[in-house]
Write a structure and sequence with these properties.
CATH topology of the largest domain: Rossmann fold
Number of helices: 14
Largest sheet: 5 strands, mixed
Strand order of the largest sheet: 9-8-7-10-11
Radius of gyration: 20 Å
CATH class of the largest domain: Alpha Beta
Structural class: alpha/beta
């Protein structure tokens, strides 16, 4: 059977299934110093630069002029920083191939890469001098050493899908030689979050839940220090203690048994990824699901794959997009 396409929201389930096999161990991590010597332009001021990340360090000899973006946040942040992108992994759930919040959108000609499976020959053919994969699928982490022979690579900072969006923006900005732009982008994002919270002061103390159903199992993004939690915290919101206490596995998710669906009612609002009619019918057919106050009050919101990716990996490049998509649900509980 052909595997179902997995974009960031569903990467949680994939990561759980792989049980940590998606990235090389620290023993195999290497510096991108093994990449071929670039025959690019003379080094700009501030270069070479060395970036420390979750798989070691990467040295970038000159200001990048040909950037490849393999993860959804990489595409979003690179666009916001006006990076010279020559190739980007396509969003399989979008008709135009762009990830949500990418501004300006990438033309179809640049969307030449698969977002699920590394194609090293195609990446190499783009002749990149920097490869961004901070939020790329786990298969790209496994190919880190081989990708590093093509060009300097920037993977996740600490843990896949658990890095702060601010941190990723600053790290990518450093790699691009655009630290000032990155710092400004982070500042604007924080100001926008603070303004939204000020406009909706009754959100303070409200509780949220973000999860998904996948292959019959229910996962809650429960990591208390993860990027989703940080986003809602900036609005004054928090996870219910009962859900935050779930054992967190790789990807920042904890599995919720069907018998404990009642815990969803500890939240004031829920955002739930159920991506097919069959899965939605299966979820709503669970006896406890239909009796939830969250459902009866209309505060359990089914989200699309794109919205789930924004919630899973919020970053300064998409703050405005995410706030506007969540605005109706948040304003409802803020009344």
């Amino acid at each position: 059977m052909t595997p179902r396409p997995l974009i960031p929201a569903l990467a949680l389930a994939l990561a759980l299934a792989l049980a940590g096999c998606g990235a090389p161990s620290s023993g195999t991590a290497s510096s991108a110093g093994s990449a071929p010597a670039a025959s690019g332009p003379p080094s700009a001021e501030g270069f070479p630069v060395t970036v420390t990340h979750g798989l070691g360090t990467t040295t970038i000899p000159h200001k990048p002029r040909r950037v490849v973006a393999l993860g959804f946040a990489d595409a979003q942040i690179a666009a916001a920083l006006d990076a010279p992108v020559v190739g980007v992994a396509r969003n399989p759930s979008a008709k135009d191939g762009n990830w949500p919040g990418v501004t300006p959108p990438y033309p179809a000609a640049l969307q030449s890469l698969d977002s699920l499976t590394p194609n090293l020959e195609r990446v190499a053919a783009l002749k990149p001098d920097l490869i961004l994969m901070t939020t790329a699928q786990p298969a790209f982490g496994s190919a880190y050493a081989r990708l590093s022979t093509i060009a300097p690579v920037i993977p996740y900072k600490n843990e896949l899908l658990q890095d702060s969006g601010d941190d990723l923006t600053l790290m990518i900005g450093q790699a691009l030689g655009e630290s000032a732009k990155a710092t400004e982008l982070v500042a604007r994002s924080r100001e926008r979050l603070a303004a939204f919270a000020a406009e909706h002061p009754t959100l303070k103390g409200k509780k949220y839940v973000f999860g998904q159903q996948y292959s019959g199992n229910i996962y809650i993004v429960a990591a208390p220090d993860g990027p989703s939690a940080a986003f809602f915290s900036a609005l004054g919101m928090k996870q219910p203690d009962e859900l935050a206490a779930l054992p967190v596995q790789q990807g920042g998710a904890g599995q919720l048994s069907e018998e404990r669906l009642d815990l969803l009612d500890t939240a004031d609002v829920g955002f739930f990824g159920v991506y097919t009619d069959k899965e939605r019918a299966e979820f709503e057919g669970r006896p406890l699901a239909s009796s939830l106050d969250l459902v009866k009050k209309g505060n359990l919101h089914y989200v699309t794959l794109d919205d789930a990716s924004l919630l899973l990996g919020p970053n300064p490049a998409v703050t405005e997009t995410l706030l506007e998509r969540l605005r109706p649900a948040l304003e409802k509980i803020a009344r």
